Amino acid sequence: MRARWTLLAVVGTIFMFSSIYWVNKGSLKLQLSDGAIPTTEAPKPKELTRAERLQYMNPDPNNDTLVLPPKQFMDRMIRQDVMTLYHRYINSLQFFCHRVLHLGKLDDGGWDICDDKEFRPNQHCLVYSYGINFDFSFDDAIVKQYGCEVHAYDPSMNMMDHIHGNQVFFHNVGLTSDNNSMTVKGIPWKMGTFGAHRTTNGHLERAIDILKVDIEDWEWIALPEMLRSGTLRDVQQFVIEFHLTRVKAEPSIAQYLKCLKILKDIYDEGFRIFWTHRNLWCKFYSSYGRDERCGCHEVSFVRVS
């Protein structure tokens, strides 16, 4: 009998301590889920006030040009305002070119440049063209129109360096933010910066009359280095295709902000949009209102300062 009561006492003690353990464990889980333990996440920036939104979401009243706000203000904008700002900005003109000249194919492959006297390439002009995809129509047209020396770059064509036609020098090299080679789909690509390419060709002391960039998303990697290093400072005209997204879905706010901040850096560098064109291959439906929008734009800039 005494042994039975001893066994029951032991079982009761084990049950009591087990209950205390599981209750405390559950309480710890609740504490963790409630955020009782401090996190290292940065605090969310305070959203813009109504006055700030009116100031930075409307064009300059003096010239009706939409100017991007400071980057720290962009970080405080709600997603819908960020999306609206990007599409308004990328589709707006900032400079009037009297004579816009289209060179190359009328569809994909041709580009619009400003042929006003102030920006027209001179007789010793120099052009860099990134992204060929077997289409030299723009490069050939530049030579025919102005007699420029053209350096064309594309590592994706699996083609050796050569002289294409008259004064077009092809380089089997890609544009990025460093000078490290890489492998794409099992094929080695030689890569480099804009400054490194100019150095190799002996062009650091020569102004660039036209820079063309169409490199399928790689612009977002290459452009920060080009802006930071100052290699865009002697570029007269800059034509580029921006790929916000190439899928049929709204980009994230992080992608919108990254693109907007680079566009602001380009503006601050002294470039102004004189021509913009939607590439309808990249169209998608917006998350807000289901409006149809475009994720790829061919944009032409001239340097004004």
Explain how this protein is built:
The chain is α/β, with parallel strands linked by helices and 305 residues long. It has one domain. 32% of the residues lie in helices and 24% in strands. The strands form 5 sheets. The protein has an 8-stranded mixed beta sheet, sandwiched between helices. Strands 1-2 form a two-stranded antiparallel sheet. A hairpin with a 7-residue loop joins strand 1 and strand 2.
Short synopsis of the structure:
GO terms for molecular function: methyltransferase activity. This protein is of the alpha/beta class and 305 residues long.
Map the helices and strands.
Blueprint: H1 2-33, H2 50-56, H3 71-74, H4 79-90, E1 100-103, E2 111-114, E3 126-130, H5 137-146, E4 149-153, E5 162-164, E6 168-171, E7 174-175, E8 182-184, E9 187-189, E10 191-192, H6 194-200, E11 208-213, H7 219-229, E12 235-243, H8 253-268, E13 271-278, E14 283-285, E15 292-294, E16 296-303
Parallel strand pairs: 3-4, 3-11, 4-6, 7-10, 11-12
Antiparallel strand pairs: 1-2, 5-6, 8-9, 12-16, 13-16, 14-15
